[in-house]
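Entry:
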Amino acid sequence: MNTLKPILLGLSLAVAGSAVAAAQETATIPKVLQITREYTKPYKDGMAHDKTESAFVAAMTRAKFPAYYVGLHSLTGKARALFLTQYASFADWEADNKIVDTHPALAGELERAGIADGELLDEVDSAVYLFSPELSYHPHADISHARYMEVYVFKVRAGHGHEWDQLAKMVKEGHEKAGDSAHWAMFEAAYGTEDGTYIALSAHNSMADIDTGFAEDKKFHDAMGEEGMKNLDKLFGETVETSHTELFSINPKQSYVSPDWIKADPDFWKPKPASEEKKANP
């Protein structure tokens, strides 16, 4: 999705993986994606935040809670953490909420963790997005080996939904013709932010993948041709009100992921404590 940058310029919010799903062949893109943003106080986004967030992860793990989430750490923009929680439906979300409501011990642990975490934060907000398969391009359902996430945020002008669909189609066809490595999962805002907001999430296993994306920009331009790029730029200007891009790293210490993910990459998701490594390598 890197080659969208020169055309769409990028976007923001904070969010999503090309998808958050189980690391296995049956992995799917979540239909409902909740994105919680925590804006940390200056210089409180390091080990201190890892410690308070680990309390949530520990409580969820003990309860074998069914809703998994990935924590992202901002590398650009204002210091913040994003938490991407996946649901197959709103009914599943409701079912998970009832688990907390009917288990006082878990609710108490989460409340205590929240109070401690709040001491490090300036602001918290949350939004819900719905997966848009027709606007996505080769989305990656399995991101168990991903380390970085590009988040593109677009605010489409009111009354220009048809043009937005046409714009996405043109961009997808250009990438298909170019045969590049672009990929993204597109989500449309449902609650918590302005109508007409879309986010595209593109996960990468390393920053070298991002280098590749920028290097492939010429392929996309050549595939579109001069006239095609002019038409694309014109349609973008008429359709999109604002856009920007942010880069995040995936933070395993602030993530509660499925056993499948941990099994796929245990050194990343559940590294051995330093003391254990020392014993294994005297």
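Residues 181 and 212 are 8 Å apart (CA to CA).
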